[in-house]
Amino acid sequence: MFLTGVTGYLGKVLLVKLLSVCRNLPDNSICVLVRGKKELSASDRFDKDLFNESYIFKQLLKDRPDARKAIKVIDGDVSKSKLGMTPTDYEWVSNNVTSIIHMAATTNFNENLRLAFEINILGTKRVLTLAKQCKKLLSMVYVSTCYTNATRHSGTEVREKVYPINFDPYEVIKDVTAMTPEEADKATPHIIGNHPNTYTFSKMIAEHIVLEEKENVPLAIVRPSIIGGAASFPVAGWADSYIGAAGLVSATGLGVLHGMNGKGSNIVDFIPVDYVVNIILSACWHTAANPPGERMPIYHAASSTRNPYTWEDLRAIVVGFYRRRPPKRVVGSVWCIFIQNPFLFYLYHFAFTRLPATIQDARRVVKGETPKMVAGAKVLYKACHSLSFFTLHSWLFAAHNTMALWESLSEADSVIFPFDISQLNWEVWSVLFCEGIKKYVFKEINDLENKGTERKFRSKL
């Protein structure tokens, strides 16, 4: 198996799942593409970020001390020709790999368009080229996003298909890759049109390239919505960074986020990270067992049509949790509201975030400390602005293929790889997510108010 993107949140959980479930893997049977960083080689970075520092990998090693032997780390970069691999490594993958899961991407909403194209589009194209040369390939899964179709009207159904576009994606790729990063920045609003950011636009084009060039590759696409904390695996509520959904919950819990430019009654399409992993692995198995031929099945890893949940529901639970159990690093009162009007939201942000930050910085200067609160308030406002498109709009992501995939699992496999979102209790999940952020992101891992309460919530989930 060949994996990209394993150092990311989703990739870590998927790799731990594989190593936990497949207990008799031969040495080097899971091949991971990792980019070296600064003074660290790819292998050293992989060991440092995952096996040496990640909580879930440390827990894995307690049960499987030899787990690292199953992994072959290859130095590479999806933004480089032939994925940045040496000829020897490229040939090894071509001769030995039977399945590919491509998760690597830049998920930065405000990424430079040139770089977003290089990683999200051309990187995917390079992985597909590799797949065509793999002599033993049985399946490939490309991880995209539900929001490739974010230009569709709010409230409408988005089906599990690649929708037609009114431009030639190859011409756009040619134009953008010929630009300098500075030129791409200036041209971005014109090029992406109604898309909210370079991330959704580049992933949308990548899907069209995959559809056009897949040829005989047995390939499926998995589209996650907003990935949140784990429902149960590797531990309930697991989160490990301030990225994505965890960032919003963290900022609210710390008392720095008091408002969002959005509509509370809109659906917040969360999906637990372990459900996404289980859908990916199930799709990988199903594609190998039932080659799709010319078809390219698409699976929505989403909750909006099967078990809808609103932003207001989430807000109430998050605020209630952190008022009862504030983090040690809390910097202000915990509350948050939704404001639909952008101008009113700006005034609200200025009054309750920017102005208090200015006062706090003034106090810091008087004390001889470095002012940093205003800078943080600016970052927070920018983040809220980037997310406003998704809090002001909502879609209904059809999940017919995903449910058919679920029903194809045996009873035993459905226990090992659960992803029936209709059975998830959102209230319980939200509390566990808040708990997970407190423990694993805020590093208050031993600050459990009541371990019995956590066990009770897990059993309910």
TrEMBL record:
<dbReference type="GO" id="GO:0005777">
    <property type="term" value="C:peroxisome"/>
</dbReference>
<dbReference type="InterPro" id="IPR013120">
    <property type="entry name" value="FAR_NAD-bd"/>
</dbReference>
<keyword id="KW-0444">Lipid biosynthesis</keyword>
<dbReference type="InterPro" id="IPR033640">
    <property type="entry name" value="FAR_C"/>
</dbReference>
<dbReference type="InterPro" id="IPR026055">
    <property type="entry name" value="FAR"/>
</dbReference>
<protein>
    <recommendedName>
        <fullName>Fatty acyl-CoA reductase</fullName>
        <ecNumber>1.2.1.84</ecNumber>
    </recommendedName>
</protein>
<dbReference type="GO" id="GO:0035336">
    <property type="term" value="P:long-chain fatty-acyl-CoA metabolic process"/>
</dbReference>
<keyword id="KW-0443">Lipid metabolism</keyword>
<dbReference type="GO" id="GO:0102965">
    <property type="term" value="F:alcohol-forming long-chain fatty acyl-CoA reductase activity"/>
</dbReference>
<feature type="domain" description="Fatty acyl-CoA reductase C-terminal">
    <location>
        <begin position="353"/>
        <end position="444"/>
    </location>
</feature>
<dbReference type="Pfam" id="PF07993">
    <property type="entry name" value="NAD_binding_4"/>
</dbReference>
<keyword id="KW-0560">Oxidoreductase</keyword>
<comment type="function">
    <text>Catalyzes the reduction of fatty acyl-CoA to fatty alcohols.</text>
</comment>
<comment type="similarity">
    <text>Belongs to the fatty acyl-CoA reductase family.</text>
</comment>
<keyword id="KW-0521">NADP</keyword>
<feature type="domain" description="Thioester reductase (TE)">
    <location>
        <begin position="3"/>
        <end position="280"/>
    </location>
</feature>
<dbReference type="Pfam" id="PF03015">
    <property type="entry name" value="Sterile"/>
</dbReference>
<dbReference type="GO" id="GO:0080019">
    <property type="term" value="F:alcohol-forming very long-chain fatty acyl-CoA reductase activity"/>
</dbReference>
<dbReference type="InterPro" id="IPR036291">
    <property type="entry name" value="NAD(P)-bd_dom_sf"/>
</dbReference>
